[in-house]
Amino acid sequence: MNENDKPRFKIAIAALAEALDYECPATRQKTYWLLFGHVSIESFESACEQAMRTLRWFPKPAELFEIINGSATDRAEAAWLLAEREVLRVGYRRSPAIDCPVTIAAIESCGGWERFCSVPEKEVPFVKRDFLKAFGAFVHAPPRVVQPLIGEVDRLRDRLPKRGPVRIGELTGEVLRIR
Asked: How many angstroms separate the CA atoms of 8 and 100, rounded?
């Protein structure tokens, strides 16, 4: 949100307070403005509307964030579906297009990308359970630094020496003469 969204923000907060029979002091409005500044006004208004329909009391910021972002369980399930899709799309040989640090950390906790892709079908429910549990833990304590997930081909390519073009015969030490 930006300063231009402030009137819409105030209307959304006032409507939420009115619907839930709550006197919303100016300090609370300022706190919510600061906390939800990175959220689009449309997402905030939508969260307020949903809160009016589903909650009995004025929501804490965490409740509105959960409405906007989904619960940790919802996010873990969505991350599992993304990981499954990448397994089917690239397999263990290629690197997946996963950039969420929490998802990457959860996959690493399950043994890394290559192992994650190579799980026998009968073990998938157990790996899923471990993934969801790890994801939930990493949501509350995100990893500070994660390395991207690397597939077998990219891992092996990184082991090769970095060289320019090689002439035929250089690798074996033989000199090739053309007559």
From this structure: 31
Give pLDDT tens digits for 96-109: 999 999 999 999 99
Give pTM, 2 decimals: 0.63
**What is the separation, in whole angstroms, between the first and last Cα of the chain?**
74
For residues 23 and 35, what is the distance between their CA atoms, to the nearest angstrom? 19
Helix axes 101-109, 72-90, angle to 10 degrees: 70
Instruction: Please answer whether residues 151 and 91 qualify as being in contact, where contact means their C-beta atoms are separated by less than 8 angstroms.
Output: yes
Q: Specify whether the CB–CB gap between 12 and 44 falls below 8 A.
A: yes
Is the pLDDT at 144 greater than 90? The verdict is no
Q: At what angle do helices 6-19 and 26-35 cross, to 10 degrees?
A: 120
Confidence of residue 172 (pLDDT cuts 50, 70, 90): low
Distances 58 to 28, 37, 62, 69, 141 between C-alpha atoms, Å: 11, 19, 12, 18, 27
Alpha helix segments (H runs only) across the chain: 6-19, 26-35, 41-54, 61-69, 72-90, 101-109, 113-117, 124-140, 152-159
